[in-house]
Amino acid sequence: MRFNHKVVAITGAAQGIGRQTAEQAAREGARLLLIDRSRYVHELAAALNDAGSQALAKSNQPRAFSRSPLTPGGALMR
Fold first, then answer.
1. What strands lie across the sheet with 7-11, from one edge to the other?
2. Tens-digit pLDDT profile for residues 3-57
3. For the whole model, what pTM was predicted?
4. What gap in Å lies between CA 73 and CA 50, rounded to an integer?
5. Which of 14, 55, 61, 75 has the CB geometry, 3.0–4.6 Å to 36, for a possible disulfide?
6. ∠ CA(23), CA(26), CA(27), 5° rounding?
7. Residue range 59-64: average pLDDT?
């Protein structure tokens, strides 16, 4: 697994290339922070979580990335 134990942040993750990138990274073992303005990013995160991946979605918050749980003890780091 190429991204095993790594956190990957993907902007524009709700559709197109961003969505495909998220799906591929999940298949390769990444923990995902999915960022998009579209509410559909939450549906993608739910689908990836249901498939056994770890994904967290952030939408409608341009500064969401700077306040994300990527620090030790955060949701994706547990």
1. 7-11, 31-36, 54-59
2. 888 999 999 999 999 999 999 999 999 999 999 999 899 999 999 999 999 999 9
3. 0.77
4. 23
5. 14
6. 90
7. 62
Per-residue model confidence (pLDDT) at position 70? 56
Residues 12, 20 contacting (CB under 8 angstroms) = no
Q: For residue 16, how many C-alpha atoms fall within 13 Å in the half-sphere facing its CB?
A: 5
Beta carbons of 2 and 29 less than 8 angstroms apart: yes
Phi, then psi, of 44 in degrees rounded to 5: -65, -45
Q: Could you tell me how many residues make up the chain?
A: 78
